[in-house]
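Weekly structure sync, notes
Attendees: PL, DS, HV (note-taker this week)

Item 1: DUF748 domain-containing protein
DS walked through the input record. Source organism listed as Parapedobacter defluvii. Sequence as pasted into the shared doc:
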Amino acid sequence: MKPIWKWVIGIIVGLLVIVVVGAWYLSRHWKPILDAQIKEAVIRSTDSLYLIAYDDLNFNLITGNASISSLRLMVDSTRYAELERQQQAPDNAYNIRIENLRIRSFHPRRILTDRRLQIDDIIIDTPSIHIVNRYHAYNDTIVTKRDTQTLYQRISGILQEVSVGNLHFNDIHFKFSKKTDSATNETVLNNLNVKVSDILIDSVSQFDTTRFFHTRAIDVDVPGFRYETPDSFYYVSFDRLQIATLYKQVTLTGLKYAPRMSKDEFYKRKKMAKDMAVISFPSIRLGGIDLQRFVNNQQLYASSLHIDSGTVAISNDLRYPKHPTNKIGKSPHQLLLKMKQPLKIDSVVLNNIDISYAEVGRKYQKEGKITFNRTSGVFHNVTNDSLALLQNKTMGADLTTYLMDIGKLNVAFAFDMLDKKGAYTYKGLLGPMNGKPLNRILTPLLNAEVANANIKRVSFDVSADDHRSRGSLRFDYDNMRLNLLTIDDQGKKGSMKVASFLANSFIINDSNPDANGKYHTGRINYTRPHTYSFFKTLWQSLLQGIKECAGISPERERKIMNAAEEAKKASEKTGGFFKRVFGKKDKGGG
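Item 1 (cont.): predicted structure, written out as tokens:
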């Protein structure tokens, strides 16, 4: 080797040694300076409310890598108490602990030359976040003094720009504690993962509306969660929650709302006839969310909500006593208006939902059930926003379902959201079906069965409010026959032949048009009892129209009931049946 190359190599090696040793020296001696700067920055930016501590801090000027172990961000309790006395304390206080924080490629030269902190990746392992919420009434007032500085204004004295390529939170443990004078309620989530992409804080990005809190995208993945309601009867759970801010979308899978005990145990503990709900939705997708509005004002505004498949099963047990309540003003659209949570969803889309109602009757102590299978459709303008309702006051719903999984039923609702009496309209069409599947609800509850019924179509058009329903119903059918049943001491089912004959011959027209060619149109003019729910009122109103189509007048019913009582002992049971089938008001409401 020529001597000149020996000198060149020697000089290069020497320079590298100087750089490495210098970097090592600077790292060691800058460490206390950097430590002081970090702690001072936290105190200054949080108005002395938070303190920061850690076990070890390492960084390498050559590679631009750094790490912090056992990092803690803690509330200064003394300062918080002082802010409470000054009525300036925030409702939420944060305590954060991070086992390991790693920074990759923070480009130290740019900090020195341009006052720009640019980082390729930040990895945060096993962070523990505890939020303690204490309500302060003064935070609800507009006169409370607030710090209006933007995040950029807070850091501009130190840096002109902060940018991070990717920020990873791995295996987050989260706890939210809501404290009141009497109790503390806690919500815990474990094993969360969050990825934040393209963070940029500078003089321009603070006004960039395409960014969500200075980020291009935040992806949140929450695994299974279960919450038990305070009354200890129900639980709410889901398998997975995913939030994607770039697409303004939230996806919830495996949602369940169900009792924590069996049906028998539920009613033994309730000791009253009260609806029990079991709800299961495999997939719910909320799209087009205004995330900024939700974070800033807790207002849920979205373009669509999709519920794909699932079941809604409601049941009741009338063997237990009822506790009637006034249900005027508690229709679904009225409850939406009363919600404290501001809400506006342009469309709620249902796809293939199975809905059922089951009831154990008081008299025969058997369960009857009616189902609306494969329910699909759209709710439009689902909102309680007063300004939005001034532009469009109608919430509409167009639904298609299959009664007892056979008869296709189309229904359209229109709710006047601004009407003080809760006005709404509904009209629909039930297509051809055999009447026998209705025995699933008829026989257990009324001890009767449809022997035959060829339903051609049922159409209705009704206007209603809190107090009255008015409209018309058309019921086209033929070959209708009912069997009134009896049960002997051994539990065997038999037919009350005389009573059945009387009902089929003198009370019910076996077809519409009837045997004389007269077509019967049902007129609906139904006064709602104050104890009747919205859905029971719908049914009773339609039943009034069905009775007229079948040729059943109150006078005709009373005459045949009296004749049956005189003709045969079994007619006493027939009379009880007629009272239930043909709409005699019960005392308990529903």
